[in-house]
Amino acid sequence: MFILKNSSSISQVARLRSPRFRQTGSNCTLSFWYYNYGQSVGAAEMQLLVDGMKQPTVLWRAYYNEGNQWLKAVIQLGRLPHPFQFSLDKISLGFYDGISAIDDITFENCALPPPASSCEGPNRFWCRDTKACIDGVLVCDLVDDCGDGSDEDNCNPDLQCNFENGLCNWEQDIEDDFDWIRIQGPTPTVNTGPLKDHTTGTAGGHYLYMESSEPRQFQDKAVLLSPHFNPPVNGTCIFRFHYHMFGKQVYKLSVFQRTVSNTNGWLLWYKFGNQEDRWIRQTLYISSSKPFQILVKGTVGDGFTGDIGLDDMSFLGCTLYNGNLPTISTTTSGTSVPATLPMNNCTEKEFVCRASGHCIQMIQSCDFSPDCSDKSDESACVTEFCDFEDKNQCGWYQPALEQMSRNDSIDTTNIFKWELGRGANLYPGQEKHSPLIDHTTCTEEGWYLFADSSNGEFGHTADIATPAISLTGPKCKIIFWNHMNGSTIGSLEVLCKNGNRTSKLWTQSGSQGPQWNRAEVFLGIRSNFQVVFRAKRGVSYMGDMAVDDITFEDCSPLLIPGRSCTSEEFTCANKYCIPKDNLCDFVNDCADNSDESPAI
Length: 600
Known about the structure:
- By secondary structure, this protein is mainly β.
- The protein has five domains: 11-108, Jelly Rolls (Sandwich), CATH 2.60.120; 157-320, Jelly Rolls (Sandwich); 348-379, Low-density Lipoprotein Receptor, CATH 4.10.400; 382-406 and 414-553, Jelly Rolls (Sandwich); 559-599, Low-density Lipoprotein Receptor (Irregular).
- Helices cover 1% and strands 36% of the residues.
- The protein contains one helix and 35 strands.
- It has one helix spanning 399-405; strands at 11-17, 29-40, 43-50, 57-62, 71-76, 84-93, 97-108, 124-126, 133-135, 160-161, 171-172, 181-184, 206-210, 221-229, 237-245, 252-258, 266-272, 280-286, 292-299, 308-316, 350-352, 359-361, 385-386, 418-422, 447-451, 461-465, 469-471, 477-484, 491-498, 501-509, 517-522, 527-536, 545-553, 569-571, 577-579.
- It is globular and about 80 Å long.
- Mean pLDDT is 87; it is low at 330-339.
- Keywords: Disulfide bond, Repeat.
- This is MALR1 protein.
- It comes from Herpetotheres cachinnans (Laughing falcon).
- One of its GO terms (cellular component) is membrane.
- InterPro entries: ConA-like_dom_sf, LDL_receptor-like_sf, LDLR_class-A_CS, LDrepeatLR_classA_rpt, MAM_dom, MAM_domain-containing.
């Protein structure tokens, strides 16, 4: 189907209407291929028209010439319980010169779940009228998975929030930088954020979003606090929520759990970067022996196309706690590590938890996943994120420099080496080849790590490394920002060192301009290794190299859960559970390649 030019009207609108549909299931998606080419081709948008709603919902937009090519659009519809139809509008204001076309319209997973003659087995729910048999984890999650609403009957409203009538019993944190915003329809900035909520799938529904435009700055944080919960009676409390992370400059969404009110708690889950224009469901299994609280933290990225959305947050198998969480003194650390080891029965091949004397496998230390209650197994390791503020190097060290420092006869002052620096400390003229501002705070007061080329000679190298990392997961990668500006820049490398073997993972040479540049290096599954940044000096002092905001993302190794995998998960051959969305994506998510088997 394509549009013919009509020159009889200055303002032209071409409209294509779909048949009427009665309803859709909760996993419904619409896809089509479109062509929008020409110097003045104009805009196009797909609208959802629901019976009983005066306001249409914009589902998709194309604003401009997108080249001589067919492009695919995928629209998440979700559960639409009322009759509806689509309207595809092509708008041309003034002179129209171009071709617009649409082809191959496809609906997927739009039917309600089929009826079942029986519904036996653990954690299954039999729908009242449709007789569908669904996973028990879908009950009371604010989504009508049954198609008759029975999976959402008799639910405790204190354990759910769809934000249609406010924040429910969630609260904005007063210790963060700014607040989440409750909104209907699209966010104010184009090409980022949702166009509609998740609950109703229309512009009439409400959700929360984190605005990333000015005056927000990189790494500003907005934190949402849950009510307090009792320790789960059956051992596990299930937290379900839907998130939306769409935009080129989306940064991070993370979930924490805490049992002490004036701490950040410990990390349960996080997600980095653009996840496309869709709502994504996340299920977290929470265990605790003490009353606890959940924190949902959004972190601003490098620009205004970094909005993040939240909707349909619910708990299952949890009960509210009426009291307050305890506090700890701010003068002492709640996870202080004793200087001497407690009494223990650990072998030489096991790690001793400093506070309890509990024994864990040595490979569980320095694996980005705390296994000791005091987190002592991760205390002498590199941290997941390092911004070098407060002059903290987060575990990174220089092996050669430390070796030289042990020899009193060697002066390390003028050796080419890594140092902590900031723009405020630069001497006149040095800003031409060194960063004037750091990447974290974008100020002259912010700290970064740099190799000072005013020391050393041409070809000298400086290495800074992590302590040994025991084990990483299949999606592990390191993300960092680098600054390489100057007429005689040498090279910067990222190396992997395993025993006596060193391999090059990434390299950059020459001047890259007077700005911070993002780099991403895939690590995957590795064991007993170090990550090394190697700077190689150029021919003169006009070429300092700097790094900042180093992040190890998705690096925790896979763990076999003490439960069976849910209907949303795939059971790997090694019994790990991974999301079904990760099947057949050319990534070894299971660590045994069973998720990439041709037999799936």
